[in-house]
Specification:
Interacts with PqqD. The interaction is necessary for activity of PqqE. The chain is α/β, with parallel strands linked by helices and 369 residues long. The chain contains 13 helices and 9 strands. Bound molecules: iron/sulfur cluster (SF4) and FE2/S2 (inorganic) cluster. The site of FE2/S2 (inorganic) cluster (FES) has 10 residues, from α12.
Length: 369
């Protein structure tokens, strides 16, 4: 068995409640209900355990983390544990007063999502009228307080033409970094492939725009890029390799090797309510299932790229090939690759399809002010 190193980053999904209904939501189809969420004290214990384990960066996510009324307390506890704290938010629910309280609590960084660069696009994709206007206000407060900012633009067939404007907006907002993420088809997003799959031409154009902007904006803006992987020949190194650098804690305390791991039916997940985080990381069955390279079948096991991409994404292999141990079908060496490319082209050529919005039993009303 591969000896694990300590994780570097932890994603704390504080809640699945969210005021938006994005059709590409990556949260599981079955979401944790509010009454199952970890309490403030339980999260504080998880943060202290994470720091002891070696975690350096804590990403506070959701759903919408601002929906948690104890967010400021949680940030403070994480900072006291010595963790670098990053808030991943849509901005909805963040007032100037709350942002100042988060600053006082020690929040280090904000990552703001962008559903579109116009109110029409952003509000349609997020399914939240007035969301864009509020987000722009939140961006101003973020700049005034001086939080380092990353913009997270999720792109797909409907809004890929807005990529140049998204880059401009990042510069105007004073962001240090933008994540240009072509939509990943996990969880709810799988229902929207006909509506959201980019065309092959769009995917190539996005790559060209990113390459040009990286040169032009060198020293001003760092651009992270997640290309349209259905149109690629090699898969992404998902999670930096399973169980190698990061872990996710779901709202109900289940500890996951990645955000979509619950789509792999045979895996059983430990819970921080029942087992110390360190034991879960090193000895948990789910973390050891695809750690390292020993589990790999051919063609991955003899491939020169096996420690480059670790066979791609286990959840994508599950969703597209029905086998989480299979080579990610994005890979040109996968027997499913040709079929996947044909399916991607068919989704991209589909007639205008209505968006199927994320719906949830735990749908958040207005987040705490
Ligand atoms: Fe990566 Fe496996 Fe494809 Fe090789 S065969 S490139 S290891 S996914
Ligand atoms: Fe689970 Fe890629 S999302 S391994």
């Amino acid at each position: 068995m591969t000896k694990a190193r300590p994780p570097i980053a932890m994603l704390a999904e504080l809640t699945h409640r969210c005021p938006l209904s994005c059709p590409y939501c990556s949260n599981p189809i079955e979401m944790a209900r509010q009454d199952a969420e970890l309490s403030t004290e339980e999260w504080k214990s998880v943060f202290a355990q994470a720091a002891d384990l070696g975690v350096l960066q804590l990403h506070l996510s959701g759903g919408e983390p601002a929906t948690r009324r104890d967010l400021e307390d949680l940030v403070q506890a994480a900072r006291e544990a010595g963790l670098y704290t990053n808030l991943i938010t849509s901005g909805i629910g963040l007032t100037e007063r709350r942002l100042k309280a988060l600053d006082a609590a020690g929040l280090d960084h904000v990552q703001l999502s962008l559903q579109g660069t116009t109110p029409e696009m952003a509000d349609e994709i997020g399914g939240y009228k007035g969301g864009f206007k509020r987000k722009m206000q939140v961006a101003e407060w973020i700049a005034e307080i001086g939080f380092p900012l990353t913009l997270n633009a999720v792109l797909h067939r409907r809004n890929l033409h807005q990529l140049p404007r998204a880059l401009e907006m990042a510069v105007e907002m004073g962001a240090r970094r933008i994540e240009v993420a072509t939509v990943q088809f996990h969880g709810w997003a799988l229902k929207n492939r006909d509506a959201l799959m980019p065309t092959r031409e769009q995917a190539a154009e996005a790559t060209r725009i990113v390459q040009e902007a990286r040169l032009r904006l060198k020293g001003t803006l760092v651009i992270d890029y997640v290309p349209a992987d259905y149109h690629s020949d090699y898969p992404k190194r998902c999670m930096g390799g399973w169980g190698s650098t990061g872990l996710n804690v779901a709202p109900d305390g289940q500890v996951l090797p990645c955000h979509a791991a619950q789509t792999i039916p045979h895996l059983r997940f430990d819970n921080v309510r029942e087992r110390p985080l360190s034991e879960i990381w090193y000895d948990g069955a789910a973390f050891n299932a695809y750690r390292g390279t020993d589990w790999m079948p051919e063609p991955c096991s003899s491939c020169e790229r096996k420690t480059v991409d670790f066979g791609g994404c286990r959840c994508q292999a599950m969703a597209l090939a029905g086998d989480p141990a299979a080579t990610d079908p994005v890979c040109i060496k996968s027997p499913h690759h040709v079929d996947l490319q044909a399916r991607a082209d068919a989704h991209a050529a589909a007639e205008y399809a209505a968006l199927i919005y994320r719906s949830a039993p735990g749908k958040a009303p207005e987040p705490a002010e």
